[in-house]
Amino acid sequence: MIPPEFDYVAPASLDEALQALQQGGEDAKVLAGGHSLIPLMKLRLAFPTLLVDLRKLDDLRGIRANGEVTIGALTTHAEIEDDKGLGLLARAASTIADRQVRHRGTIGGSLAHGDSASDLPAVLLALEGSVVARGSGGERTIAAADLFVDLWTTSLKPDEIVTEVRVPSPEGWGFGYQKFNRRREDWAMVAVCALVRKSGDGAEDVRVGLTNMGPTPLRATAVEEALRGQPLSAESIASAAEQAAEGTSPTGDLNATAEYKQHLARVLCARALTEAAQL
Ligand SMILES: Cc1cc2nc3c(=O)[nH]c(=O)nc-3n(C[C@H](O)[C@H](O)[C@H](O)COP(=O)(O)OP(=O)(O)OC[C@H]3O[C@@H](n4cnc5c(N)ncnc54)[C@H](O)[C@@H]3O)c2cc1C
After folding, report:
1. Is 58 exposed, middle or buried (0-12, 13-18, 19+ CB in 10 A)?
2. Which residue, judged by its Cα, is nearest atom 23 of ligand 1?
3. Relative to the CA of 98, which ligand 1 atom is closest?
4. CA dihedral defined by 105, 72, 193, 199, rounded to 10 degrees?
5. Which residue, 252, 187, 242, 197, is CA-closest to 220?
6. 138: Cβ–Cβ under 8 A, 6 or more apart, which residues?
């Protein structure tokens, strides 16, 4: 379908982009890779009157690691996939759609879009990362735990632009990523990411993130608590993973009932933890 008419600007600096966004009011929208926004416009589920295209803002691209890892908001999924030092982030990015989509879609767009079926939101939550946003009120850092509010709803203000994403160094953490879909390039029916920091044969720390198990990405805190400080074995992982669906509220759809998604969460959680623990 053809989207409704809209105005379009492609500013040369972040300040100009912020100004254009403010002047455009609540119906102005930022355009990054366009791989979520344009389809929504074509389906007439989104009808911005002004698109502020960020494509000329090269300062918002690239990955810098200096203890903490800083990723520019316009960095594509393909660039993240190719940086294997990013560990879990690189693995999760490699499962997004196909390479063509990954060359266009950006990390900032994926997080700002706030779709709980997207791969990167739950990963940012498990990594305890954050986004940096600039708007009329200045710059602020928003922790992943405070970013995702509801389905397709984040705590970003309409005049804010995500400039970068920050995650702690992946050093010392084993990771696993398990995504279940009908075809390899589909969105996740359910996905589970796991991070394990080992101490001897035990789990010093554990983090588990769930994709598409509710209106927002979730942490499987019951699993984390059950395994933290425990010896790592097939038995302890299987027992902890049984709690993966606790507190979740997935919706049934054409692919799976809510109960089947909860079953998937438990199975994928055990697999992701086994991978992360390198058993
Ligand atoms: C065929 C297909 C399959 C896909 N499969 C998957 C998949 O399996 N897993 C997955 O995770 N994703 C998938 N996607 C989505 C893809 O990852 C998108 O690229 C991503 O969700 C949005 O990124 P974008 O840069 O394209 O954002 P856009 O579409 O440009 O923008 C999305 C939203 O974010 C806002 N926005 C964008 N950038 C910023 C910013 N810097 N600051 C503030 N707001 C911003 C926009 O205003 C808009 O509301 C798929 C897309 C397609 C087309």
Report:
1. exposed
2. 109
3. 3
4. 160
5. 242
6. none
CA atoms of 128 and 206, how far apart (whole Å)? 12
Three-state secondary-structure class, residue 81:
helix
For the Cβ of 113 lying below 6 angstroms from any atom of ligand 1, the answer is yes
Rg of the Cα trace of the chain? 19
Grouping H, G, I as helix, E, B as strand and the rest as coil, residue 167 is: strand
Q: Which atom of ligand 1 is nearest to the CA of 186?
A: 8
Beta bridge partners of 192: 178, 210
Q: What percent of the residues of the chain are helix, what percent strand, and what percent coil, each to the nearest 5?
A: 35, 25, 40
CB under 8 Å to 73, separation ≥6 — which residues? 32, 54, 60, 106, 107, 108, 109, 131, 161, 162, 163, 164, 165
- 279 residues of the chain, pLDDT tens digit each: 788 899 999 999 999 999 999 999 989 999 999 999 999 999 999 999 999 999 999 999 999 998 899 999 999 999 999 999 999 999 999 999 999 999 999 999 999 999 999 999 999 999 999 999 999 999 999 999 999 999 999 999 999 999 999 999 999 999 999 999 988 889 999 999 999 999 999 999 999 999 999 999 999 999 999 999 999 999 999 999 999 999 999 999 998 999 999 999 999 999 999 999 998
* Residue entry with tokens 């200096």: 66
Contact present, 22 and 2 (Cβ < 8 Å):
no
CA of 106 to the centre of ligand 1 (A): 6
